[in-house]
Amino acid sequence: MALIQLSNVGKRYEGGYDALRAITMHIDAGEMVFLTGRSGAGKSTLLKLLALIDRSTQGTVIVNGKNYNHVKPGQIPYIRREIGMIFQNHRLLQDRSVFDNVALPLLIHGYNRNEIQRRVRAALDKVGLLKKERLRPLMLSGGEQQRVGIARAVVNKPLLLLADEPTGNLDPELSSEIMRLFREFNQVGVTVLVASHDLDLIRRFGCRMVTLDNGELLNDTGTLMTSPELERHLEGLPDV
User: How much is the average pLDDT of 1-24?
Assistant: First the structure.
């Protein structure tokens, strides 16, 4: 069953710049998919449409049975409860503790104190940071800060997890660790869509890969089996 359905989706910004053009694809519930492409290909724009951070200017976006064309502004916070979003730069509140950063979505949605404590500590335990819940983000390593971002994204128990270049600032070992966390969440039923340009890393997971180029759908593989031509394109190498 498709959790995400995109039909002829486009996004045009002021000035006539087309960030996405005629994207048609679907992602089934429970899938883990990598979204890749060169810088400026449209990966971040697509994730923003799925998270209702931005709206398409063409076509239809349907997530978990909800047609985003019909979603009113007041409904957006309720839809976002089902979606966890992870960013490359963490976007943590530096003057708050790790616990408070992870608790923020629950506070916004009105959960009671006991439920907040239970959920936050469960999320921190999952990412291996329970013992650091009272520290400030600046006291953590880059990999630990990214794990705080992941805990914050999953504390609401989302159906869909979106990650925008989550390993872009991490070394290879930490990058693999973060990707393994995404795989663990996927294995318990969370649908995961990760935007990344790191072919060497995502190749290890054998998942479906969707490739964008200049706002268009270039390639969609059932599993990550790329052709030499596609790999050269993604790496920015000239054709031979």
Answer: 96
